[in-house]
Amino acid sequence: MSTSLPVTPQRPRATPMVSAPRRNAAGQLLKKTGLLRGAGEDISMHDSTASKPQHRSMRSRLTAQSKALEAVKNKAASAAPQKATTIKGRGGTPPDARGPIRSRLPKRTQNADVSVIQTWKTVIQSRYNAQARFLNLDNLSTDPELLSRGIPFNKIRESRELQVIMKVASQLEPVPVTISLAHNGLDGSHIFSSLHRYIPNVVNLSLTGNKVRSSKDMEIFAGPKWVLTKLRELILLDNPIYEMALAQGKIEEYRKEITRKFPSLEILDNVPVPHIRLSIAPTTPRIPLVPEAAKAFPTSMGPNAIATDIQAFVFNFLQRYLAGFDTSRPSLHSAYTPTSTFSFSYDSTIPPQSRQRGVLYKMPNQRKLDWSAWHSAGSRNLMKTHGSLQDARDRLFTGADDILVGLGLLPTTKHIVAEGEKFVVDTVQMDLGAGPQLFITIHGEFVEAPGVIDGIRSFDRSLILSPAPDGSYAKQNGWDAMIISDQLNIRSYSSHESWAVGPMSTQAQEIAAVIASGSPMIPPEAYIQV
Fewer beta carbons within 10 Å, N or C terminal of the chain? Predict the structure, then answer.
């Protein structure tokens, strides 16, 4: 007989309650970024094969987009045959049958670049004096070689061409230490960045007639504080930075700012830069590596060097010639022969002594003068013809007729010969196998464009005279001598005191006299006191 165990009634189990996840800031941020879904589900652990639930609004937008895309495709497919038929009917070529699209712009070939660089090498080499290590890059926009090759040097190409120029110049042997970029209208920042990159050891630099506007043009972006650390001489005349300082009477501030940029600078705008030196006695005697230059000439200036027996003849000839040059240049035709030569040149550099004396500010008409008339007349300055033999030939006037044309191109003048102390004449008698000849040099001054400008220029003139034979064209017109050679050099005004009879003073002596007197020779607003 079996017995059954009593069944103990069980209590119903309570279903455990799952509390809702705590909504903290971190969870909300993960949900917003899509890394966490509802009920703590990590999106990185989700099965890739599982279907992704989408919101009803999301499904509606996707359905609408797919329908719109399908409509566009159907429309394009139906329009394609019609477009091809239209093109074929017009005699055109379907787009898929055409070749690759080619640009109508001319391509710059590598050979063209090589030709341009080779031209620059030729130009720079012709302008380089290896013996003096001097590179003359004045007036590049008028260089005949560049013009003939069709390589303009203008504002658009300025930065690129300067990089090419300086890179080619840095390859010269020996590397140039003196560079002149005068009268090119170049931007200052381009100049200094190119020099700093390719020729950082330049010693003497002329930037006359460019567009250096401020001292910031001399800074290199993200570069060193000091550039061109070996620069000894710098010329910034006829630049906006200089002209503005001059107009505002801030020349002293201008000079201080430039010398701060270039601590090694010794000469600025042809004027020495004063340096402060501590008066500390050296422990050992200093032995100069180079002997100190003489501060006084060993001889005195003498009077005109003319032999007594020909003095009257020389003075009478020059007085008549200069009077004709001022009033009636055609009357000088008979003074030349069919084989005579004439040439002239000008030097626009202002002499340092003239700057010390303040000529430009004490003589108001001097600021009205410019060199454009002399330049356009055909100056034969061989330092600016860039070694061009053709230019040298074209600017040499030969024969009386041609010389008369050359004289007519020059500005009007007035030589005040009555003031004899303003002229000095030296003569030498010589015989070069063609009979006796007389070599005359005359230094003096004249008024340019009298009654209009009234500015004063200085000049040097060299004449070779030969006796006029009886019955010759010159003799018939009252000339006792004929001019075989005539060379005229025009320069900025310098006082006639330079050839005053007596002891000759040097620039160092003049500066010492300024310091001793305590007053500058030129106005303080125009120039820093020495």
Answer: N
